[in-house]
Amino acid sequence: MSTATAVFPSVLTDLGIQWSALEPRYQALQERPLTPENATQFLLDWSDLQREANEAFTILYIRADLNTADAHSREAYLQCIRDLAPRVQSADAALKTRIVQLEGYEPPEDARLILKRFQTEQQIFREENLPLFTELAELSQQYSQLTGSMLVDFQGEQLTVSRVEQLLLSPDRQEREGVWKAWQKARLSIAAKLDGVFLKQLRLRQQLAHNAGFSHFQAYQWKNLHRYDYTPQDCLQFHQSIEQEVVPLARKLLEKHRQGLGVAELKPWDFYWRSQLDSQNRPALQPFKTVEELQSKAEQVFTSLSPELGRQFAQFRQQGAMDLGSRENKMGHAYCAPLTRQKLPFVLQNVVGMSNDVTVTLHEFGHAFHAYTSMKHQRFFWNTLSATEFVEVPSQGMECLALPHLQAFYTPEEIQRITEAQISRVVHVLPWIAFMDAFQDWIYTQDASDITVEKLDQKCRELLGRFQPEPSWAGFEQELGKVWQYYHMFNTPLYYIEYAFSWVGALTLWKHSLQDPQKTLQSYLSAIQLGDSCSVPELYEAAGLQFVFDRQTVHGLMDFLRSQLSDPV
């Protein structure tokens, strides 16, 4: 394993921030006389300090993900979360106590929810949990290292997962089967280690909750994620709506897919929701060959949709605020992380030339535009981006709003094909989201000491049978049981149902855009300026939407998607 220091873009320059530099500034805030008259300035000064500390953490995190084999970057990040992060968290908690206990302070409108969230955080903060957060962050790094270094041995080549997903689009069924089996072999080779990581995380998360006075982690995390506008029971009902309204449509699409492929039974190598083979068995589209070509064409798409978004993308590109190529030892997920001091988003992807890469680029830069715009318009650090229930609307909405503007990548006939692929992707991802949330709902309401690897795998198979009964995994039950070993399970517990909420919003945006594209785009751009300064229902309203996810709403959206198919099912 390489121990050499990797080379990173200038926006990821390690700030080398130390507690010795931050401590006097935190101490000065702690000792500053605090009155209702100067409380807003107190928040602003604290906000500036938070931006610097947060960016330092974020840069180290990204650098570790860009090269999971770089021991220097990994140790720098781990040192930060062991030594610096607990001190910053403790200092922030003390300042939150000061501001929430200040009597007579009437916060300005853009600080109203900040104070509410602070009050919630103070209710659940426990000093004894700080070492547990450190342990959890270290375990997340173990996950990244294990998955980032995993390669798939296929026909004498060592393939990244992104390359595997590309080969799963091959019209050659024998090739698909071979690469899928090789991928599963690689997954199973690290599965036991990932099991160990997760069980440790599970017990630590339960301890966090118990320390804070909660009976289980779900109740703790509900507070931690500031979920003010819905309940766990609402989520269970949403699962049922998806099961009743979306799963039947997904099965119809899969039957059409099976007929198109001309096979007797769909197997996992014939359909994968993240990398969907063409239902007519046509060769996969190749919308670009190089990262440079992807960036150039993406800039054209965003400019066509909105000249302002095109300018922003060009700025991100010029400043090196993205690393999009796939390579060995790079963490395999895609994300956008805000660099809060520079007020610049950074996007990490793993592209290999697939049409799905274009979709992910639209998605991640939807996040990037949201982060950038909110950082520019919101004066408080805590109002960057938005509540998690809305934060995916700008990204998923971008996937839909950009569809008529993809001429740089595709012909008109190919755009229709991509549109139908997008419909299929949404129809199949909603049951996946329901599976992920139902699985976590079960896990985090149990006693962690009762959870075993066998129970995890069995529950995984059970819930997949409910939400994704096809294709058939007969003969691959062991592999099916490990499907739960997914990024969010290890890194963002109980954060997943938000994707489904946001798809309801994004699909409604798409529907509105077909009736009035300019008004819809303007509502989109106005909503992302608000960051996290408004409640979830208010953010949806600003985007011309409603925060609803009942069965009737889901039914109407499935009807809309059917209407956009050239051959409705």
UniProtKB/TrEMBL annotation:
Protein name listed in UniProt: Oligoendopeptidase F
CDD domains per the UniProt record, alphabetical: M3B_PepF
Cofactor annotation comment: Binds 1 zinc ion.
Source organism of this protein record: Deinococcus roseus
Cell membrane is among the record's keywords: no
Keywords: Hydrolase, Metal-binding, Metalloprotease, Protease, Zinc
Protein's UniProt keywords contain Transmembrane: no
Cofactor: Zn(2+)
Pfam families xref list: Peptidase_M3 (PF01432)
SUPFAM superfamilies attached to this UniProt entry: Metalloproteases ('zincins'), catalytic domain (SSF55486)
Family: Belongs to the peptidase M3 family.
